[in-house]
Specification:
The complex is a heterotrimer of chains A (279), B (384) and C (298).
Chain A: H1 2-5, H2 12-18, H3 21-33, H4 41-52, H5 65-82, H6 85-104, H7 109-116, H8 119-128, H9 130-133, H10 137-142, H11 147-177, H12 181-205, H13 208-227, H14 230-237, H15 241-266, H16 269-275
Helix pairs in contact in A: 5-11, 6-7, 6-8, 6-11, 7-12, 8-11, 11-12, 11-15, 12-13, 12-15
Chain B: H1 2-10, H2 13-28, H3 39-48, E1 50-51, H4 54-78, H5 89-123, H6 129-144, E2 150-151, H7 155-180, H8 182-189, H9 193-197, H10 205-237, H11 262-291, H12 294-314, H13 319-326, H14 329-334, H15 336-339, E3 344-347, E4 350-353, H16 354-379
Helix pairs in contact in B: 1-10, 2-7, 2-10, 3-5, 4-5, 5-6, 7-10, 7-11, 8-11, 10-11, 11-12, 11-16, 12-13
Chain C: E1 4-13, E2 16-26, E3 29-34, H1 41-48, E4 56-61, E5 64-65, H2 66-69, H3 71-75, E6 77-80, H4 92-102, H5 107-120, H6 136-148, E7 154-158, H7 166-179, E8 184-189, H8 192-195, E9 201-206, E10 209-214, H9 216-222, E11 227-232, H10 237-243, E12 245-252, E13 255-261, E14 271-272, H11 277-284, H12 289-297
Helix pairs in contact in C: 4-5, 5-6
Classes of the chains: A mainly alpha (279), B mainly alpha (384), C alpha/beta (298).
Chain lengths: 279, 384, 298
């Protein structure tokens, strides 16, 4: 062995000279039979600890907001295929139902819009938490895109879908109401933000079955309350624009708080796990 | 067992959350009548309160006319419509009281007219024997009422009684469905059903324990909801008064043929609503066993209870649909429809008052339901 | 003398015949149900646990049909399914007390019995903790405690040792043989070594039917001259696996040592070795070798 140590890389000729065929054969045999023992746990840990200092630190999140938004959009686009067909079908159905009700029934079309607006989002939330409900959380957390990223992109996707659908419906019915479009958009958008905030809160704290049923109950009762009270209908439909914007801002703030909570919660497994026990 | 089943239901936070939100809803709806709380109103009210004679009604009419003239005069002087007229509190109180008295007078007249029409109908040669019999029945019931209508200030009672057939029934139904849908279904989703079913009492006594726990939940819910409501009503409208006057003094029940005081009706209605809550609970429990899925149970029971309400709201009145709405879970838990009018149905040719038949039918449904729960639960097979 | 007779039972699901004409007579002792995935073990156990009804045939305990016995049958039954949940916000004590009442123990009995079984499965320290904090192995052990709660005469456990660490497995094995004395214990498992020493008889099941039933000695005997061991080169292995039932594979200095179960001598230098139950398993369940034995070895 000691002979080999002295060899200089450049002088191959010398190596050729000293080469012993027999010894080589013996050596080869020895190497073939050599058993590599599995290192024990402590050794592995020690190695990992030593290597840790060379691991590059996690790259910071994309520098500016616009870049982050673009990545979010891109990821949402890939989620389109993952979100189940039932969701898309339900959305379409709800849209058709909304269209029919606004056109056929003699209730105020804006009222119908207010009532129907949050539904696609609620059903969509089930998709957002699909992983959690099916016990995939642990696996998702270890993937390249972590749970909070997946959830955020899905949330973004269903939010966009929902708002788009509502806006289209608003545009369709706008000739019948004779109100400026901005006002009509605000009319449903403001209650919508509050509904979304409540729905998010519920969905973070309770498992799917419970939050959908609870939310639907609250939603139904809300509708019942509004319909049974003419003053409220009037108030809801004719809010001052300034108040509208204030409410909208407040609602949006509530939503962003909830989204932040959601992200914080699902960045670690312990956070997500706690949800599964709640009713 | 019973204790643990209760524990399972009562530790669910979402129920408390919903309950509190509902109470918040109750709080923000409906305003108070501030004029009723004033001294001027109270003293004049004490003067007029009670049964009304025709001279009294005429006098009220005269005074009302005077006040209305005064209002016109004040408005002309004020040169605009801003503010409250008449301006003096005393006049406002008087206006409110005389309006009510005149209204009561009209109601009395209407009531007498109704009795007379019924009386005539009994002897009218064009009515069939059945119709005559029904009219006779209604007439006799009305006779027993004597002269039920007078002038009473029943705002608090009206609102409290009204709660039963408005929010009360909606909140109760929703919370019952929310609370009980998972009772059997969750054993499956939590993969405990097979453990339970293989134990000694896992096929019969556990079902009883679950039913009892569910009833406990319904009872607790029912009493706390109504207790909270009573407190809210008092805060909003002041103390309860005149609960001992006939039910017909509440405008919504003016057509009711039954001889009950408002207080009696409230007690009766609470009893029937509790019964209705329990019957609905049984329905939900049964669906929970069959579907093995809490959300499905929620939707199916919601549809069963809600559809007749929807039919009624949309005004479908085909005969079959009328029967469906008449004999629906929602009618039972709303109670009001049973009492507020005279409906007689014929069973094998015999006339029978709708509420009696209704309660009988639902007691039958409930007992069949209990039987089905036990049967279905005993025979269930568990594969996952 | 306890006697459980399974009389020609079958169970058909919508699209699948899970158990077909299974008959067996069991008396006191530990019986092991061995078979590949999808052999119908779990369905059979569920029928014995009275949570599934046989499509045809019947099960008799001491001559009485269990579907007629109802409560009385389940009173003497302890069942632990392969997969089960727990109420996550219950403590161990609350959970077990709940089931103690379900199993018909009165309050006094329940308290003492819960203590006993918790001790038996070594969970006394964690008795007051909520079940959501339990690890997989602890949940298993709690399940075992649950099955033993009513001191059952018939104990049916489906894959009881899955998820237990080796030490706990040994403990459980000993526990089973300790309590087996005067009761019928039926357990299914993939882990052949679990049952090698404790099972009175082994029931081999395949595609819903009982294909062989004998003591483990007899089973070992039946493959006595059929287990071979030889060392081959790495490249010869695939060929070998194609033609023979190859069991354990181990790298040794001179090449690869393989264990082959075969009626004839597979290679000239193959030598006969003492069989284990794993070889028996291999012998009877050829096609399922991969998911059967290898899963068991892990």
């Amino acid at each position: 062995m000691s002979r080999f140590n002295s060899i200089n890389e450049t002088d191959n000729d010398e190596l050729e000279e000293r080469f012993d065929y027999k010894e080589n054969q013996v050596l080869q045999q020895e190497l073939t039979d050599y058993l590599v023992k599995f290192p024990d746990e402590d050794d592995i840990d020690a190695t990992i600890d030593t290597l840790r200092q060379y691991v590059p630190t996690q790259t910071t999140k994309s520098v500016n907001r616009i870049e982050r938004l673009i990545t979010l959009c891109k990821r949402s686009a890939t989620e389109v295929t993952v979100v189940s067909k039932t969701y898309w079908i339900t959305c379409t159905l709800l849209f058709i139902i909304g269209y029919l009700i606004t056109n056929l029934a003699d209730t105020n079309p804006l009222l119908t819009l207010i009532f129907l607006a949050p539904l696609p989002f609620i059903i969509g939330l089930l998709e957002v938490f699909k992983g959690r409900e099916h016990g995939l959380l642990e696996i998702e957390l270890t993937c390249k895109f972590t749970t909070d990223q997946i959830m955020l992109s899905r949330l973004f996707l269903i939010g966009i879908t929902n708002v788009t659908l509502n806006t289209v419906l608003t545009l369709i019915i706008s000739p019948t109401t004779g109100k400026p479009i901005l006002e009509m958009l605000l009319t449903w958008l403001t209650p919508f933000t509050f509904f979304v905030a409540i729905a998010l809160w519920l969905s973070i704290h309770f498992k799917g079955q419970v939050f959908v049923t609870t939310f639907l109950s609250l939603w139904l009762v809300f509708i019942g309350l509004i319909i049974s009270n003419n003053h409220w209908i009037e108030a809801l439909l004719n809010i001052n624009l300034v108040i509208h914007f204030i409410c909208l801002g407040f609602g949006s703030l509530l939503i962003s708080i909830q989204v932040k909570q959601l992200i914080n919660k699902y960045q670690t497994y312990e956070g997500g796990q706690r949800v599964e026990i709640n009713y | 067992m019973y204790k643990q089943e209760c524990y399972k239901i009562f530790t669910r936070k979402s129920l408390y959350f919903t309950f509190l939100l509902f109470i918040f809803f109750m709080f923000i709806t409906g305003g108070s009548h501030s004029i009723h709380q004033t001294n001027a109103y109270q003293s004049l009210y004490d003067e007029w309160r009670g049964p009304l004679t025709s001279t009294e009604i005429d006098m009220a009419n005269e005074r009302l006319l005077k006040i209305e003239e005064q209002i016109d005069r004040e408005m002309a002087e004020a040169d605009g419509f801003e503010g409250v007229f008449p301006q003096r509190i005393e006049d406002q109180a008087a206006h409110s009281i005389y309006t009510s008295v005149v209204q009561a007078g009209e109601n009395i007249e209407w009531f007498e007219g109704r009795k007379e029409a019924l009386h005539n109908k009994t002897f009218d040669p064009t009515t069939t024997a059945d119709q005559a019999e029904d009219a006779q029945m209604e007439f006799e019931l009305l006779q027993q009422l004597n002269e039920p209508i007078g002038f009473y200030q029943t705002t608090t009672w009206r609102s409290t009684v009204d709660f039963i057939n408005t929010f009360g029934f909606i909140f109760l139904t929703v919370l019952i469905i929310l609370g009980l849908a998972p009772v059997f279904a969750d054993e499956h989703s939590q993969k405990i059903a097979s453990l339970i079913a293989s134990t000694k009492y896992g096929k019969n006594k556990i079902a009883s324990a679950k039913i009892l726990a569910s009833f406990t939940y319904i009872g607790a819910l029912f009493f706390s909801l109504h207790l909270v409501n009573v407190v809210i009503e008092v805060i909003k409208f002041g103390r309860f008064a005149d609960g001992t006057v006939p039910l017909q003094n509440l405008y919504l029940f003016i057509q009711s043929p039954f001889s009950l005081t408002i207080g009696q009706y409230y007690a009766l209605a609470l009893g029937i609503q509790l019964l209705g809550a329990l019957v609905i609970g049984l329905l939900v429990l049964f669906l929970s066993i069959v579907t093995r899925h809490a959300m499905l149970t929620f939707f199916i029971s919601g549809a069963i209870i809600g559809t007749p309400v929807l039919f009624r709201q949309l005004g479908f009145d085909q005969e079959l649909i009328q029967y469906i709405t008449q004999f629906s879970y929602a009618e039972l838990i709303r109670v009001k429809g049973l009492i507020d009018q005279f409906i007689v149905l014929r069973l094998f040719g015999q006339p029978i008052l709708y509420p009696y038949l209704f309660i009988a039918v639902f007691l039958l449904i409930a007992s069949v339901n209990v039987f089905l729960i036990y049967r279905q639960y005993r025979n269930q097979q568990i594969v996952n | 003398m306890l006697k459980l007779i399974i009389e020609n039972i079958s169970k058909t699901f919508k699209d699948k015949q899970a158990v077909t004409g299974f008959s067996a007579e069991l008396s006191e002792g530990v019986y092991a149900l061995l078979g590949p995935n999808g052999a119908g073990k779990t369905t059979l156990m569920r029928m014995l646990a009275d949570i599934l009804k046989p499509t045809s045939g019947r099960i008799l305990l001491d001559g009485k049909d269990i579907s007629i016995m109802g409560d009385h049958y389940r009173d003497s039954l302890g069942y632990l399914p392969q997969e089960f949940g727990l109420y996550r916000n219950f403590t161990a004590v609350r959970f077990l007390s709940y089931f103690a009442r379900l199993k018909g123990l009165d309050k006094q009995e329940a308290t003492t019995r819960v203590d006993e079984v918790l001790k038996l499965v070594n969970l006394q320290q964690d008795r007051k903790r909520k079940l959501k904090t339990y690890s997989g192995g602890m949940k298993r052990r709690l399940g075992i405690a649950l099955a033993l709660l009513n001191d059952p005469k018939i104990l049916i456990v489906d894959e009881p040792t899955a998820g237990l660490d080796p030490q706990e497995r040994v403990r459980f094995r000993n526990l089973l043989s300790e309590i087996a004395g005067d009761r019928i214990v039926l357990l299914s498992t993939h882990i052949v070594s679990d049952i090698e020493y404790i099972a009175k008889e082994v029931l081999l099941m395949r595609q819903g039917t009982l294909i062989q039933r004998s003591t483990s000695e007899q089973l070992l005997d039946s493959v006595k001259d059929k287990v071979w061991k030889c060392t081959v080169e790495q490249h010869a292995l695939p060929q070998l696996q194609k033609h023979y039932k190859v069991g354990n594979i181990q790298r040794v200095e001179t090449g690869i040592e393989v264990r082959i179960v075969s009626d004839q001598q597979p290679l000239a230098d193959a030598v006969n070795v003492t069989p284990t139950l794993e070889d028996v398993y291999l012998y009877f369940f050829n096609e399922e070798v991969i998911d059967g034995v290898q899963a068991g070895m892990l």
